[in-house]
Amino acid sequence: MTTEEFRKISPSLPKDPGVYRFLDEDRTILYVGKAKNLKNRLNSYFGVKKHQAYKTKTMVKHAHDIEYTIVETEHDALLLENALIKKNQPRYNVLLKDAKSYTYICIKKERFPRIFFTRNVRKDGSTYLGPYTSKYRTKQIFDLIKNLFPLRTCTLNLSQDNIDEGKFKVCLEYHIKNCKGPCIGEETEEGYNAKVEQIKNILKGNFKPVKDYIKSEMQFFADRMEFEKAQEMKEKLSLFEDYQAKSTVVSQTIKDVDVFTIGSHKDSAFVNYIKIVNGAIIHTDTIELKKNLDEDNEDLLRFAIDRFREKYNSITKEVILSEDIDLLEEDVTVTVPQRGEKKHLLDLSEKNVKYFIMNLKKEETTKQNKQTSAERILKTLQEDLQMDEVPFHIECFDNSNMQGSFPTASCVVFKNAKPSKKDYRHFNVKTVIGPDDFASMTEIVGRRYKRMLAEGESLPQLIIIDGGKGQLSASVKSLKELGILDRVTVIGIAKRLEEIFFPEDPVPIYINKKSESLKLIQQARNEAHRFAITFHRNKRSQNFTKSELHTIPGVGDKTATKLLTEFKSIEKIKNLTLDELTMRTNLKIAQAIYNHFKKQVDESA
Fold first, then answer.
1. Closest by Cα among 250, 216, 476, 445 to 345
2. What sequence ranges are listed for the domain UvrC family homology region profile (predicted)?
């Protein structure tokens, strides 16, 4: 949408709160935004664009229409914006980068429920608790459950009829006291389910009911003078209290609360979440939000809070933040602490975000330090030649002739700073008569890239011409005619002082003689020269051989090839007798060849 097109609809835009949507030509939603004043907000997209983000400019450029919905309050706009983003997933809104498959603990819906890890949540009536982002943390919880409340691990159908009929026998788990034997009726369903309820309390972070349960069991056995069992429960209580101490109890006064902080790095924002239930940290997680437009931290944080609370099924009525913002849930209180235990929680969350970003920076630095020698050389070459792109694909041209005869040219290809010999090409100059290197270069460069364009091949980032300003200008002529001069970087290298010339610039540049980038240019130039000279020599040799044999009347390609294949050279053929020639061809042709070379010998004598 152009500024002129927007000006036509601008006078009719309302100044009320609402939600606006940019749409492309197919009526697909590109971006959804909210505004306290729709007219002012939309005008900001088409006003002075000096400081406008590139992605915002791109989105507006691709937009063909604007839709908006008026609402009563800014908070209503907030709710509607969130609903539309979730439903339509617009291209230019915040993208959530969170592809992990976390672990859940499943309490199976069955008689004498089993409890186990899973990554797949199914709608089978079972209870799924989680997700758990820390493998160590999950194992720690599971080991505690196993020690405190032994449960069955088998998949037997423990119906009452099967148990009464004695269909099952106890397994090793029973003998090592990891199971109380419900399969043979040694544990009641009521007692088993009571343990399951306490396990649910542990997994939900409700520690007090668990402690009360263990204490009541300990007192029950003590009253019945079953002191060994009472001692066993006391040991379990100590084990549980030790686990509770290690589970990061933050306060005896703070109960249920969610804590969020946000940090930024490059084009991403990172939001840390800490979930606290009954004074203990139950979950911590950090997600990355990709910034696609000019969203501020308040928008990103609100988006993340909604996603986190939905993901972790949080129902707490208090959220701790570093600044006061309007949330989507009206009955949730935002606390911005300045001191005390809640401020300590906020600082802990901020520390997590900073640590996450610090690790990310370290990884980026490590990747940069691990760049290959080829990447290092090509980036140096890019800087030396002030190119927009790294020259992963380089092509170098050279031509060769001897006093204008047998004019040839070569093109060598380097990919990732190494010769790609399968892509080398040699050319016979077809349209140039006489020793004209400039015209030859114009022809060869034109033929090379005309064919590449016709076949849809990708062009090189850098073209090197072996020669000075004359050869460079000749190649530029062809590139201009093909309309690709602005799509490639082309340079000429003069041999004497290793001067680097650019098109239409009479002043050359000099790259440090020890520079790896100059060595790469020289390697490409030398390889092109070698390839051109080799082809030229072969062509001269082939031409001489053909001229020598084909001047003899009656000798064709078949006879010439047969003789050269067997004797390898003309000199050996000259020394053959008439009988030896007759054995290899008919008498008439043998006599002609013999007479031809005998005449040469006689004339030289």
1. 250
2. 268-475
Are 5 and 16 in contact, with CB atoms under 8 Å apart? no
Please, are residues 258 and 314 in contact by the beta-carbon 8 Å criterion?
yes
How far apart are the C-alpha atoms of 528 and 530, rounded to whole Å?
6
Q: Is pLDDT at 251 greater than 70 in this prediction?
A: no
Same fold, 377-540 and 551-604: no
For residue 282, the one-letter residue type is I
Q: Which CATH topology does 551-604 take?
A: DNA polymerase; domain 1 (1.10.150)
**DSSP single-letter state for residue 457:** P
| DSSP secondary structure letter of residue 226 | -
Answer whether 554's CB lies under 8 Å from 588's CB: yes
Q: Considering the domain 377-540 in this protein, what is its CATH number?
A: 3.30.420.340
Residue of 533, 532, 530, 581 whose CA lies nearest to 559 = 581
CA geometry: angle at 132 spanning 148 and 199, to 5°? 25
Dist. CA 364–CA 370, nearest whole Å: 10
One DSSP character per residue, 118-142 reads: ES---SSS-EEEEEE--HHHHHHHH
Decide if 271 contacts 258 (C-beta within 8 A). Answer: no
pLDDT at residue number 406: 60
CATH architecture of 3-93: 3-Layer(aba) Sandwich (3.40)
Span 257-366 CATH architecture: 2-Layer Sandwich (3.30)
> CA–CA separation, 512 vs 384, rounded Å?
10
Tell me, letter by letter, the H, E, C secondary structure of 150-166. CCCCCCCCCCHHHHHCC
The amino acid at 270: F
Integer Cα distance of 184 and 156 in angstroms: 11
pLDDT tens sequence across 429-447: 878 766 778 888 999 999 9
Q: Which long-range contacts (CB under 8 A, 24 or more apart) does 440-444 make?
A: 440/399, 440/401, 440/407, 440/409, 441/397, 441/399, 441/409, 441/465, 441/467, 441/471, 441/474, 441/475, 442/474, 442/475, 442/477, 442/478, 443/478, 444/397, 444/399, 444/409, 444/411
CB atoms within 10 A of CB 434: 11
pLDDT in tens, 310-327: 888 888 889 999 888 888
Dist CA 473 CA 504 (whole Å): 8
CA–CA gap between residue 496 and residue 442 (Å, rounded): 23
**Global pTM value:** 0.43
Q: Do 527 and 419 meet the contact criterion of CB atoms below 8 Å apart?
A: yes
pLDDT of the residue at 242: 67
Q: Give the residue carrying structure tokens 């507006």.
A: 60
Domain boundaries, the chain: 3-93, 103-205, 257-366, 377-540, 551-604
Is the predicted pLDDT of residue 568 greater than 80, yes or no? no
